[in-house]
Design a protein that fits this description.
The chain folds into two domains: 166 residues, 3-Layer(aba) Sandwich (Rossmann fold), CATH 3.40.50.1970; 204 residues, Up-down Bundle (Dehydroquinate synthase-like, alpha domain). It has 17 helices and eight strands. Helix 4 packs across helix 5 and helix 9 packs across helix 12. The relative contact order is 0.11. The chain is 56% helix and 9% strand.
């Protein structure tokens, strides 16, 4: 058992039917009357922008400022520009709508405003303080990473972790969170599953993060495939979106693991979408974990299939069944959402494996892991994923 751990879940989560309608109440509670809304280009394209603005139009506000679509990669010049827009427009809250790029950008804007700075580097060197109040409401439209509910931000070469960055409220509305095409929903689901499984495997008593991870795994096992195959299944879509947030909270507390390091390495070297890389790296990571966490992998089977099937399975077969269950789910996502689950199904070449393994071995998810992960292990995982 660990002698010490840290866990924070400061974000309030509003999830359920018509959850978006709670945004006015939350702004009022936060004392905000003029929010600055940050949206991804995808949220605009999918019609989410119109839903958000229509909802805000019915709230008791003094005005609404809307930023230009957030760039696909976090851009500090853009964040500085939104800081100026916020101050010039006398805004008093941020609303972030979209995926990772929006959540990271909104956190950067919040950081620059709260610390009253224009650069990230001094904050990295000195660490953030509570500073000026800048309320942040996060409304995920693609929520595989769970960044809408944790205090982590990646801004170019900088990786920051601070309670200052945790949004005040997360609003999970299935009509917003599941507006994306089936392949994106499948990829975000695989990303969330990797967050949950690696956080669960690496958690130890009495870490609270493991509880969030367990719930996320169970929700994804039951609801991810129905959400991908039937976008009108409100219950499955809602549960899948919630699982993504819970998994992000869990992984935010335990941010390391081979599936993440290797997915980030694949993305860095090949430019393939990060969220799609977890469907390639999760199975090799689970297989690797068996050597150290055999009992955890057996219990993972319980979370995936439930008590009855788990009880009917001999103990000696449970770890194998856990791997097979995740393989089946990913294979089903491949069939239903056209999500690649093998490297051979992508344009990635074996000749790139050395460079990918080098990148993975230098990622934070690898360096900070309890058991260091080296280049040779990553190459073996890549061959397994091929």
């Amino acid at each position: 058992m660990r002698k010490f751990f840290e866990f924070q879940n400061a974000a309030k989560i509003n999830c359920g039917e018509a959850a978006l309608l709670t945004v006015g109440k939350e702004l009022s509670y936060l004392g905000a009357k003029k929010p600055l809304v940050l949206l991804s280009a995808n949220a605009v394209k999918l019609g989410v922008k119109a839903k958000i603005l229509n909802t805000l139009a019915g709230c008791d506000l003094k005005g609404i400022a809307v930023a230009e679509p957030v760039p696909a990669e976090v851009n500090l010049d853009y964040a500085r520009g939104q800081k100026k827009l916020y101050l010039k427009g006398k805004c008093d809250a941020l609303i972030a709508v979209g995926g990772d790029e929006v959540m990271d950008t909104a956190k950067c804007v919040k950081l620059l405003l709260s610390q009253e700075l224009d650069e990230i580097l001094p904050i990295v060197a000195e660490s953030a303080v509570k500073g000026k109040s800048v309320p942040l409401i996060a409304i995920p439209s693609e929520n595989g990473s769970g960044k809408e509910a944790n205090g982590f931000v990646e801004a170019g070469e900088y990786y920051l972790s601070s309670p200052v960055l945790v949004p005040d409220v997360v609003i999970i509305d299935e009509d917003v969170a599941m507006a994306a095409p089936a392949r994106e929903v499948a990829a975000c689901g695989a990303y969330a599953l990797a967050n949950a499984i690696e956080a669960y495997v690496e958690s130890e008593e009495p870490d609270v993060a493991g509880i969030y991870a367990e719930k996320a795994i169970s929700l994804l096992a039951k609801n991810l495939l129905p959400a991908v195959t039937d976008g009108d299944n409100a219950e499955a879509c809602r549960a899948t979106a919630l699982a993504g947030t819970l998994a992000g909270v869990a992984y935010g507390a335990i941010p390391y693991g081979p599936a993440h390091a290797l997915a980030e390495g694949l993305h860095s070297v090949t430019g393939e979408p990060l969220e799609e890389m977890f469907a390639l790296t999760l199975i090799p990571a689970i297989k690797r974990a068996r050597g150290k966490y055999e009992d955890k992998i057996k219990t993972l089977y319980y979370l995936l299939v439930g008590a009855t099937e788990y009880a009917e399975t001999p103990d000696s077969e449970r770890a194998d069944r856990a791997v097979a269950s995740v393989e089946w789910l990913l294979s089903s996502l491949h069939s239903s959402g056209n999500l690649p689950t093998k490297i051979s199904e992508t344009k990635i070449e074996r000749e790139q494996f050395g460079a990918i393994a080098d990148e993975a071995a230098n990622k934070r998810a690898s360096i900070t892991a309890f058991g260091p992960i080296g280049k040779d292990e990553f190459i073996a995982m890549l061959n397994d994923a091929y």
